[in-house]
Write a structure and sequence with these properties.
The structure is a single chain. The protein is an alpha+beta fold. The protein contains ten helices and four strands. Strands 1-2-3-4 form a four-stranded antiparallel sheet, with no helix packed on it. A hairpin with a 3-residue loop joins strand 1 and strand 2. Helix 2 crosses helix 4. The chain is elongated, with a radius of gyration of 36 Å.
Length: 421
């Protein structure tokens, strides 16, 4: 019986550390600024092929076409031909052109260009959104794989432990209460295994939502084992916030509203129409020049200017709100990342070593008969729970880093790519 217990104890020691060694992270190093090349390539490929990003790119192309269209002249010339047969025969050919006297073409171009810049910022936001969503999914998947491995190992151990408890009970060395506890532990391990499997399937779905159907989970890259400390640029959050795509879009909406106000003011200026006609009447040459100017008497179009000014004020307040929220998000993201990184550093320095000593001590006490089966099972279960908590902590660290990248506008910098590649 002592040999069986010792063998089981050795199995437990291997169980606890084999799944974790593969995912153990080295201490974070400040110099590790860039992601791994394999991860960069994977993210680049997935993001560029994503329908959401492609739709945003199409919208950007359309906004460029609208800008080009707005830069063209507002009015085309008009050609007229008149013929009259009465007492005398009259034939005239005329051409007229309305002149953009108020500079409306320039104002419309400014509005369209501002709109294009808004869509450009929205395109960047779409790329970043998909990128961070993909990275979060990879973090869930990698943690889910290791969590399922831990749950599988827990189940195998608890099944063996329940078999051993049954044999000891049959031999009269174990009480009914301890046997029931071993059976409950085995059942709970099976439940946790099923739960971990379901969680892994959900994590795979999060990645598959963004990847092509041909992408197999075995081909997905691993996340970096070491994450850097926050760069010096984090000390100037205001500058980082001003470059965020949602803030850029909001500020450009204000610029668009300014351009619309100017357009509405220019639209109050009447545009004259110049007409030139020439022809023949009973053999005599006719030449005519005509100028018409609309008179804005019944409608001066002043209310359109008032509405545009109000919309400009609305856009400014929305931009202020977006900047305020973005600033708060950046500060909170930095705090969460530093807290997670500090806790992870403590785990690596203290927790892993303590876990090793705890496991070895439990083995010695159990083999020596100084620890009951119930106490050993309870403490070992607590040890496994600590390991799972460490997995959750590492996932929280990854996700906090991705959140900070998004909140600070450093997504492309970390992935080593240009903003509009």
């Amino acid at each position: 019986m002592h040999i069986r217990i010792a063998a089981l104890a050795l199995f437990v020691g291997g169980l606890i550390f084999v799944p974790w060694v593969a995912g153990a992270a080295e201490p974070p190093t400040p110099g590790a600024v860039r992601a791994d090349p394999a991860l960069i390539q994977f993210v680049q490929t997935v993001v560029e092929a994503n329908p959401r990003v492609q739709a945003a790119r199409a919208a950007l192309d359309a906004s460029g076409a609208f800008r080009d269209a707005a830069s063209r002249p507002l009015y085309n010339p008009e050609l007229s031909l008149d013929a009259e047969n009465s007492v005398g025969d009259t034939r005239t050919l005329g051409i007229s052109q309305t002149l953009d006297w108020g500079g409306k073409r320039k104002a419309r171009t400014a509005v369209a260009e501002s709109d294009r810049l808004v869509v450009e910022a929205e395109y960047l936001a779409a790329r970043w959104s998909v990128t961070v969503e993909l990275l979060d999914g990879l973090a869930q998947h990698q943690t889910g794989v290791e969590r399922e491995a831990l749950a599988q190992a827990r189940r195998e151990f608890m099944d063996r432990f329940a078999d051993l408890a049954q044999r000891r009970f049959d031999a009269g060395d174990l009480a009914q209460v301890e046997l029931d506890l071993a059976r409950l532990a085995s059942t709970d391990a099976r439940i946790q295994k099923a739960t971990a499997g379901a969680g892994l399937a959900e994590a795979r779905q999060a990645v598959r939502n963004l990847t092509p159907q041909s992408s197999a989970s075995a081909q997905w890259p691993s996340l970096p084992s070491a994450l850097p400390s926050l760069p010096k640029s984090a000390d100037d959050p205001q500058s980082l916030v001003l470059e965020l795509p949602e803030v850029l879009a909001a500020r450009r909406e204000v610029a668009t509203a300014d351009a619309v106000v100017e357009l509405r003011r220019r639209e109050r200026r009447p545009d004259p129409t110049l007409s030139l006609a020439g022809g023949d009447e009973d053999g005599e040459t006719l030449i005519g020049l005509n100028v018409t100017i609309p008179i804005f008497v019944r409608n001066s179009f002043s209310h359109e200017v008032t509405a545009a000014l109000a919309e400009r004020s609305q856009a400014q307040q929305i931009a202020n709100d977006v900047m305020q929220r973005a600033y708060a998000r950046l500060i909170s993201a930095a705090e969460r990342y530093e807290l997670s990184r500090g806790a992870w550093g403590d785990w690596q320095q203290i927790g892993e070593a303590s876990l090793t000593r705890q496991t070895e001590q439990l083995q010695r006490l159990w083999e020596a008969g100084e620890l009951s089966t119930t106490d050993y099972l309870v403490q070992l279960t607590a040890t496994l729970d600590v390991q799972e908590s460490a997995l959750n902590l590492r996932e929280a660290l990854w996700r906090a880093w991705f959140e900070w990248l998004w909140a600070s506008g450093q997504v492309d910098a970390w992935l080593g790519r240009g903003s509009y590649q």
